[in-house]
Protein backbone atom coordinates (compact mmCIF):
# COMPACT_ATOMS: atom_id res chain seq x y z
CA UNK A 1 0.00 0.00 0.00
CA UNK A 2 1.25 3.47 -0.89
CA UNK A 3 2.03 5.84 1.96
CA UNK A 4 1.80 9.61 2.28
CA UNK A 5 3.04 11.89 5.01
CA UNK A 6 0.45 14.52 5.84
CA UNK A 7 0.92 17.72 7.80
CA UNK A 8 -2.15 18.79 9.76
CA UNK A 9 -1.81 21.90 11.87
CA UNK A 10 -3.16 21.75 15.41
CA UNK A 11 -6.39 23.55 16.09
CA UNK A 12 -7.06 25.91 18.99
CA UNK A 13 -8.09 24.10 22.16
CA UNK A 14 -11.75 25.12 22.05
CA UNK A 15 -12.10 24.11 18.41
CA UNK A 16 -10.56 20.71 19.04
CA UNK A 17 -12.81 20.15 22.05
CA UNK A 18 -15.86 20.97 19.94
CA UNK A 19 -14.76 18.46 17.32
CA UNK A 20 -14.09 15.89 20.02
CA UNK A 21 -17.73 16.28 21.03
CA UNK A 22 -18.63 15.58 17.42
CA UNK A 23 -16.42 12.48 17.46
CA UNK A 24 -18.13 11.18 20.60
CA UNK A 25 -21.58 11.83 19.13
CA UNK A 26 -20.57 9.92 15.99
CA UNK A 27 -19.44 7.01 18.15
CA UNK A 28 -22.90 6.76 19.75
CA UNK A 29 -24.69 6.63 16.40
CA UNK A 30 -24.35 2.85 16.37
CA UNK A 31 -22.23 0.17 14.75
CA UNK A 32 -24.15 0.31 11.47
CA UNK A 33 -23.32 3.98 10.91
CA UNK A 34 -20.05 3.66 9.02
CA UNK A 35 -20.22 5.75 5.84
CA UNK A 36 -20.54 9.32 7.13
CA UNK A 37 -21.12 12.19 4.75
CA UNK A 38 -19.78 15.66 5.66
CA UNK A 39 -21.44 18.35 3.56
CA UNK A 40 -22.71 21.93 3.55
CA UNK A 41 -25.37 23.98 1.82
CA UNK A 42 -22.99 26.35 0.05
CA UNK A 43 -19.18 26.61 -0.39
CA UNK A 44 -16.81 28.05 2.24
CA UNK A 45 -18.63 26.76 5.31
CA UNK A 46 -15.67 24.71 6.58
CA UNK A 47 -16.83 21.19 5.71
CA UNK A 48 -13.41 20.03 4.46
CA UNK A 49 -11.69 21.22 7.63
CA UNK A 50 -14.32 19.44 9.71
CA UNK A 51 -13.87 16.28 7.61
CA UNK A 52 -10.09 16.21 7.98
CA UNK A 53 -10.01 16.85 11.72
CA UNK A 54 -12.88 14.46 12.48
CA UNK A 55 -11.06 11.78 10.49
CA UNK A 56 -7.85 12.47 12.41
CA UNK A 57 -9.57 12.36 15.81
CA UNK A 58 -11.38 9.10 15.05
CA UNK A 59 -8.15 7.48 13.83
CA UNK A 60 -6.16 8.68 16.83
CA UNK A 61 -8.88 7.29 19.11
CA UNK A 62 -8.07 3.83 17.75
CA UNK A 63 -10.77 3.43 15.08
CA UNK A 64 -9.54 2.40 11.62
CA UNK A 65 -10.82 5.33 9.58
CA UNK A 66 -10.53 6.31 5.93
CA UNK A 67 -11.09 9.79 4.54
CA UNK A 68 -12.59 9.86 1.04
CA UNK A 69 -12.37 13.08 -0.94
CA UNK A 70 -15.15 13.26 -3.54
CA UNK A 71 -15.28 17.05 -3.99
CA UNK A 72 -13.94 16.60 -7.51
CA UNK A 73 -14.75 20.15 -8.54
CA UNK A 74 -13.06 22.09 -5.75
CA UNK A 75 -11.19 19.95 -3.26
CA UNK A 76 -9.39 21.73 -0.41
CA UNK A 77 -7.48 18.71 0.86
CA UNK A 78 -4.19 19.53 -0.83
CA UNK A 79 -4.18 22.88 0.97
CA UNK A 80 -5.29 21.57 4.36
CA UNK A 81 -3.03 18.52 4.40
CA UNK A 82 0.00 20.11 2.72
CA UNK A 83 0.82 16.98 0.79
CA UNK A 84 2.37 16.20 -2.56
CA UNK A 85 3.02 13.14 -4.65
CA UNK A 86 -0.48 11.79 -5.30
CA UNK A 87 -0.26 10.06 -8.66
CA UNK A 88 -3.50 8.10 -8.60
CA UNK A 89 -6.72 9.13 -6.92
CA UNK A 90 -10.43 8.50 -6.82
CA UNK A 91 -10.83 10.10 -10.26
CA UNK A 92 -8.59 7.37 -11.71
CA UNK A 93 -10.56 4.68 -9.89
CA UNK A 94 -13.95 5.95 -11.10
CA UNK A 95 -12.71 6.16 -14.68
CA UNK A 96 -11.38 2.59 -14.55
CA UNK A 97 -7.73 3.63 -14.76
CA UNK A 98 -6.83 2.38 -11.26
CA UNK A 99 -7.99 -0.25 -8.81
CA UNK A 100 -8.84 -0.20 -5.10
CA UNK A 101 -5.29 -0.91 -3.92
CA UNK A 102 -3.96 1.93 -6.07
CA UNK A 103 -6.03 4.72 -4.55
CA UNK A 104 -6.20 3.86 -0.82
CA UNK A 105 -3.17 5.42 0.86
CA UNK A 106 -1.69 4.70 4.27
CA UNK A 107 -0.75 7.90 6.11
CA UNK A 108 1.43 8.90 9.04
CA UNK A 109 -1.75 9.24 11.14
CA UNK A 110 -2.12 5.95 13.10
CA UNK A 111 -5.20 4.03 11.86
CA UNK A 112 -5.78 6.77 9.28
CA UNK A 113 -6.04 6.02 5.56
CA UNK A 114 -7.00 8.32 2.73
CA UNK A 115 -8.53 8.19 -0.76
CA UNK A 116 -7.44 11.46 -2.42
CA UNK A 117 -8.20 13.30 -5.63
CA UNK A 118 -5.29 13.44 -8.05
CA UNK A 119 -6.82 15.95 -10.46
CA UNK A 120 -9.80 18.31 -10.23
CA UNK A 121 -12.50 18.04 -12.88
CA UNK A 122 -14.88 20.64 -14.30
CA UNK A 123 -17.79 18.23 -14.74
CA UNK A 124 -17.41 15.06 -12.64
CA UNK A 125 -21.12 14.16 -12.49
CA UNK A 126 -20.82 11.28 -14.96
CA UNK A 127 -18.00 9.73 -12.92
CA UNK A 128 -19.92 10.11 -9.66
CA UNK A 129 -22.90 8.35 -11.20
CA UNK A 130 -20.75 5.35 -12.11
CA UNK A 131 -21.51 2.21 -10.02
CA UNK A 132 -17.83 2.05 -9.10
CA UNK A 133 -18.32 4.84 -6.55
CA UNK A 134 -20.87 2.91 -4.50
CA UNK A 135 -18.75 -0.24 -4.86
CA UNK A 136 -15.74 1.69 -3.50
CA UNK A 137 -17.64 3.09 -0.52
CA UNK A 138 -19.13 -0.30 0.32
CA UNK A 139 -15.74 -2.02 0.21
CA UNK A 140 -14.18 0.69 2.36
CA UNK A 141 -16.98 0.22 4.92
CA UNK A 142 -16.00 -3.45 5.12
CA UNK A 143 -12.32 -2.64 5.66
CA UNK A 144 -12.67 0.33 8.05
CA UNK A 145 -14.78 1.22 11.07
CA UNK A 146 -15.51 4.68 9.71
CA UNK A 147 -15.56 6.08 6.19
CA UNK A 148 -15.57 9.91 6.30
CA UNK A 149 -16.80 11.29 2.97
CA UNK A 150 -16.04 14.91 2.09
CA UNK A 151 -18.62 15.77 -0.55
CA UNK A 152 -19.45 18.84 -2.66
CA UNK A 153 -21.93 21.39 -1.24
CA UNK A 154 -25.62 20.75 -1.81
CA UNK A 155 -26.40 24.16 -3.34
CA UNK A 156 -27.10 23.87 -7.06
CA UNK A 157 -25.50 20.62 -8.20
CA UNK A 158 -26.67 17.07 -7.65
CA UNK A 159 -23.30 15.56 -6.69
CA UNK A 160 -23.70 15.92 -2.93
CA UNK A 161 -27.24 14.52 -2.82
CA UNK A 162 -26.21 11.58 -5.00
CA UNK A 163 -23.38 10.65 -2.62
CA UNK A 164 -25.69 11.13 0.37
CA UNK A 165 -27.92 8.38 -1.04
CA UNK A 166 -24.95 5.99 -0.67
CA UNK A 167 -24.15 7.01 2.91
CA UNK A 168 -25.29 5.79 6.33
CA UNK A 169 -25.66 9.28 7.76
CA UNK A 170 -24.89 12.92 7.12
CA UNK A 171 -23.41 15.81 9.09
CA UNK A 172 -24.34 19.25 7.79
CA UNK A 173 -21.85 22.09 8.34
CA UNK A 174 -23.52 25.51 8.73
CA UNK A 175 -21.75 28.85 9.04
CA UNK A 176 -23.26 30.68 11.98
CA UNK A 177 -25.13 33.91 11.19
CA UNK A 178 -24.09 33.72 7.52
CA UNK A 179 -25.90 30.82 5.87
CA UNK A 180 -29.46 31.86 4.96
CA UNK A 181 -32.16 29.94 6.79
CA UNK A 182 -33.78 28.84 3.53
CA UNK A 183 -30.47 27.30 2.37
CA UNK A 184 -30.21 25.30 5.61
CA UNK A 185 -33.78 24.06 5.29
CA UNK A 186 -33.25 23.22 1.65
CA UNK A 187 -30.12 21.24 2.50
CA UNK A 188 -31.92 19.28 5.20
CA UNK A 189 -34.72 18.51 2.76
CA UNK A 190 -32.24 17.25 0.16
CA UNK A 191 -30.61 14.93 2.67
CA UNK A 192 -33.99 13.65 3.81
CA UNK A 193 -35.27 13.22 0.25
CA UNK A 194 -32.54 10.71 -0.65
CA UNK A 195 -33.15 8.71 2.53
CA UNK A 196 -29.93 9.61 4.32
CA UNK A 197 -30.35 10.01 8.11
CA UNK A 198 -29.23 13.36 9.50
CA UNK A 199 -26.74 12.70 12.30
CA UNK A 200 -26.45 16.34 13.31
CA UNK A 201 -25.35 19.85 12.42
CA UNK A 202 -21.96 21.44 13.01
CA UNK A 203 -22.43 25.13 13.77
CA UNK A 204 -19.26 26.71 12.44
CA UNK A 205 -17.91 30.19 13.15
CA UNK A 206 -20.07 30.51 16.25
CA UNK A 207 -19.28 32.91 19.06
CA UNK A 208 -19.87 31.22 22.40
CA UNK A 209 -19.13 33.53 25.30
CA UNK A 210 -17.85 32.43 28.68
CA UNK A 211 -16.28 29.20 29.87
CA UNK A 212 -13.71 27.55 27.68
CA UNK A 213 -15.26 28.78 24.43
CA UNK A 214 -14.07 32.21 23.34
CA UNK A 215 -13.24 33.69 19.96
CA UNK A 216 -10.84 31.42 18.17
CA UNK A 217 -9.58 31.95 14.67
CA UNK A 218 -7.64 29.19 12.92
CA UNK A 219 -5.29 29.44 10.00
CA UNK A 220 -8.25 29.50 7.61
CA UNK A 221 -9.34 32.88 8.91
CA UNK A 222 -13.02 33.59 9.27
CA UNK A 223 -14.08 30.19 7.98
CA UNK A 224 -12.54 28.06 10.70
CA UNK A 225 -13.90 29.29 13.94
CA UNK A 226 -15.86 26.50 15.56
CA UNK A 227 -18.79 26.81 17.85
CA UNK A 228 -20.76 23.80 18.97
CA UNK A 229 -22.21 20.56 17.74
CA UNK A 230 -25.89 19.87 17.69
CA UNK A 231 -26.76 16.20 17.87
CA UNK A 232 -29.61 14.16 16.36
CA UNK A 233 -32.14 15.36 18.95
CA UNK A 234 -31.61 19.00 18.02
CA UNK A 235 -32.30 18.90 14.29
CA UNK A 236 -34.84 21.69 14.17
CA UNK A 237 -33.52 24.87 12.59
CA UNK A 238 -35.22 27.92 14.02
From TrEMBL:
Q: Which domain of life is it from?
A: Bacteria
GO annotation, cellular component aspect: plasma membrane
Q: Which UniProt keywords apply?
A: ATP-binding, Hydrolase, Kinase, Nucleotide-binding, Transferase, Tyrosine-protein kinase
Annotated Gene3D superfamilies:
P-loop containing nucleotide triphosphate hydrolases (3.40.50.300)
The enzyme's E.C. designation: 2.7.10.2
Ranges for domain AAA come to 46-194
User: What would be an example GO MF term here?
Assistant: ATP binding
**Keyword field contains Ribonucleoprotein:** no
Do the record's keywords include RNA-binding? no
The top EC class is transferase
Catalytic activity line of the entry:
L-tyrosyl-[protein] + ATP = O-phospho-L-tyrosyl-[protein] + ADP + H(+)
- Coiled-coil stretches: none
Q: Family, per the entry?
A: Belongs to the CpsD/CapB family.
Q: What is this protein called?
A: non-specific protein-tyrosine kinase
Where does this protein come from, organism-wise? Answer: Anaerobutyricum hallii
Amino acid sequence: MKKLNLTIEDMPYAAEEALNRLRVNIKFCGKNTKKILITSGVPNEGKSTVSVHLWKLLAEAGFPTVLVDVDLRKSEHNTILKMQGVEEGINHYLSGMAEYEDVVYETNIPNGHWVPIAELLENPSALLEDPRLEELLNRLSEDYRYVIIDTPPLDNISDGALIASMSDGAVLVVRCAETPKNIVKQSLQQIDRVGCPLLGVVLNRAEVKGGAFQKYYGRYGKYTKYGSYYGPDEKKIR
